[in-house]
Amino acid sequence: MSASSNASVRARAGTILIIDDERGIRALCRDVLSRTGHRVEVAETGSSGLARASSDRFDLVFCDINLPDIDGLSVLSRLLQLDVPPTVILITAFPSVETAVRGMKLGARDYVTKPFTPDELRMVCDRALTEDAMRGENAELRRELANLIGRAPGMEDLRATIAKVAGSDATVLISGESGTGKELVARALHYEGQRVGLPFVPVNCGALVGSLLESELFGHVRGAFSGADQDKQGLFVAASGGTILLDEIGELPLELQPKLLRVLQDGEVKPVGGVEPIRVDVRVIAATNRDLAQAVQKGHFREDLYYRLNVITIAVPPLRDRRDDIALLAGHFAEIAARRAGRASMQISAEAMDWLTRQSWPGNVRQLENAIERAVVLAAGPRLEVADFETRAVPAPSAGPSGEDDPVGPDELISLDEVERIHILRVLRACSGQKTKASAILGINRTTLWKKLRLYGIE
Length: 459
Hints:
- The chain is an alpha/beta fold.
- The protein has 4 domains: about 15-135, Rossmann fold, CATH 3.40.50.2300; about 150-315, P-loop containing nucleotide triphosphate hydrolases (Rossmann fold, 3-Layer(aba) Sandwich), CATH 3.40.50; about 320-390, Helicase, Ruva Protein, domain 3, CATH 1.10.8.60; about 395-459, Arc Repressor Mutant, subunit A (Orthogonal Bundle), CATH 1.10.10.
- It has 18 helices and 16 strands.
- It has helices at about 25-35, 45-55, 70-80, 95-105, 120-145, 155-165, 180-190, 210-220, 235-240, 255-265, 290-295, 305-310, 325-340, 350-360, 365-380, 415-430, 435-440, 445-455; strands at about 15-20, 40-45, 60-65, 85-95, 110-115, 170-175, 200-205, 245, 270, 280, 285-290, 310-315, 345-350, 385, 390, 415.
- The strands form 5 sheets. The protein has a 5-stranded parallel β-sheet with strand order 2-1-3-4-5, with helices on both faces.
- Helix 1 (about 25-35) links the parallel strand 1 (about 15-20) and strand 2.
- Helix 2 runs parallel beside helix 3, helix 5 (about 120-145) packs across helix 7 (about 180-190) and helix 16 crosses helix 17.
- The model is unreliable at about 1-10 and about 390-415 (pLDDT under 50).
């Protein structure tokens, strides 16, 4: 069953500032909006409201047009000049509606007319936050999908296939090496399809062991196992109406594969320890860097599940097969990294670009993006040179995590990726192989750590 076409992103809880000199209005807004989960602050003058907005970040500001010290339109103008301007909704009495409309031309999102009911207040608030959420989601999607740029024939075919398949609810299996952008393809299928505005839930099947993964996917009931002190909603239920991405599907344990098959066949999930199945309406997209057909032959993957997943296959080409796209991607990543680092611009010299195009990039687009970002952060000038992608290894302890000699001498030139690999190995050794502790020290989550271990071939 398809998702409703008029479904939209739900309004999230936000931080809201009320600027109004009427105590009753402030109390009403605080009470109504706090009850719906928002954090609400109040101010009774324009100057005190501006002071609060300058010292704290608000998603949404309700501002009265008629204030005792500063008129509301002046407050609006100054709010919109903040580094991160909030969405502003004007509060007005009926005779000032024309002023409110003028305020909207100046940048206010909407206005609400006194006296207003709690339902009217909630509706205006939810509409503004929902629109902001959708704008942010769409902007993030555009940034992400830009990583699918390229003129190589394989990329042209990939984009054409996404356009054809996005509007369908058919199950899709995305194949490709690590770092090629399989999740980006899945997001494109979701956001360009009829389920846009509904949840997109990515799940890394290789990041959790069997029992934990089963609980994450299907949920559990209270008392199902030790520590299950309350019911838990599974990710299939959380994704209902939208799309779930089963990344690294080849890592799904054999004992869980029949349960996934049931979801695909019957549209039902059964929580761990539960009796009654739960109906779900979810589009399933799976991704793998393994050869599932070969896994089926070896008995590591169920044949019936493989054919259920393999309704439509999309293959993402590795970066080595699209070397002509490296320059496009590198320039794009340098621009993004410069913005993140607060730099005006960052060029890549001809020598550095030639060096980039000659690298093997076993980690594909992700590895290239990481290398560009690190180089931009560490670069001394406005242009990246070959030296910005290389560094000298510092003197290291004589043994690695498994007791082997350190592979890099103190004066040997190595790439930043090799530096990262060695650093991860050293942190793991210091943590006695405890990945949770190591990921905390490295400043990344466990899923990212697992991906880096696979990328660098660390067992």
